[in-house]
UniProtKB/TrEMBL annotation:
Gene3D superfamilies cross-referenced by the UniProt entry: 2-enoyl-CoA Hydratase, Chain A, domain 1, Lyase 2-enoyl-coa Hydratase, Chain A, domain 2
Chain's role: Could possibly oxidize fatty acids using specific components.
Record protein name field: Probable enoyl-CoA hydratase echA8
Keyword Lipid metabolism: yes
Any Pfam family matching the protein: ECH_1
Residues annotated as transmembrane: none
Family: Belongs to the enoyl-CoA hydratase/isomerase family.
Root EC class: lyase
InterPro entries: ClpP/crotonase-like_dom_sf (IPR029045), Enoyl-CoA_hyd/isom_CS (IPR018376), Enoyl-CoA_hydra/iso (IPR001753), Enoyl-CoA_hydra_C (IPR014748)
Reaction catalysis annotation: a (3S)-3-hydroxyacyl-CoA = a (2E)-enoyl-CoA + H2O; a 4-saturated-(3S)-3-hydroxyacyl-CoA = a (3E)-enoyl-CoA + H2O
Keyword annotations: Fatty acid metabolism, Lipid metabolism, Lyase
Amino acid sequence: ERTFETILVEVNGRVATVTINRPDKLNALNTTVQREMAEAVEALDVDPGIGAIIVTGSKKAFAAGADIAEMAELEYPGTFTEDFMGNWSRLTRARTPLIAAVSGYALGGGCEVAMMCDIIIAADNAKFGQPEINLGVIPGMGGSQRLTRAVGQYKAMDMILTGRTIGAEEAERAGLVSRIVPTDDLLAEATKVAETIASKSKYSAMVAKRVTARALQTTLAEGLEYEQANFYAMFGTPDHKEGMTAFNEKREPKWDR
Ligand code: CAA
């Protein structure tokens, strides 16, 4: 197992937890966090022993955004040629389901990392926002696109143009968050969700994630075709035979691991 400078990676059974760990900076996402998260998630993604990955931070901050100290000195040519934010797309290529467990601040890049995950579970103290406008910039890790798809044009515009922060209740009403739990129960709940997903057929979970995520990227007709092609492909996996045979034999399935 590798050790990292800015994140902690822990594996329990089939569930991995990636914890952003810069507590003195409210988990501000500098380029090291970015690279380490990409490397960690990529390695876990191709590990057949891992069925779900929790992404979390501390009680006070999931992440308070991209690192402003680091960004303050940047100039356009370098951000472009070095692809300053490029490593984040490595996270979004994970086929394994990612579950964001958000406590405290999820601002700017923090909100955007949560939205790179497939499910967002919020502690009741969670605060989501895209305050980049207050720094003279705009969201740069997907906020303008993923937030708009998640909560709709008008709520997203409200948040992005005013920079205001919303609480867990408002985030759940808006569809950003799928469940809210007491802060102290956050990791237990996220672990329960992750274990549930990890207990399923890995083929099904990976393909279901991919097909569902495609819904926001394509037309309905193309999306339906993509779903159907992938549905047919499932008949080539051992888990299809096992899952349906187990049902017919009235027993629990034993998935290919
Ligand atoms: N980058 C770098 N450092 C940060 C940070 C950030 N995004 N957020 C907090 N910190 C640091 C603070 O500078 C402070 O460090 P020092 O102790 O060394 O001074 C430490 O974390 C604790 O922060 P505060 O003292 O500010 O804590 P607070 O409880 O008083 O306030 C807060 C909390 C309201 C979240 C406040 O820290 C804050 O407003 N942070 C910035 C939020 C923000 O603007 N995020 C968007 C960043 S831009 C972005 O993300 C771009 C993008 O889309 C890619």
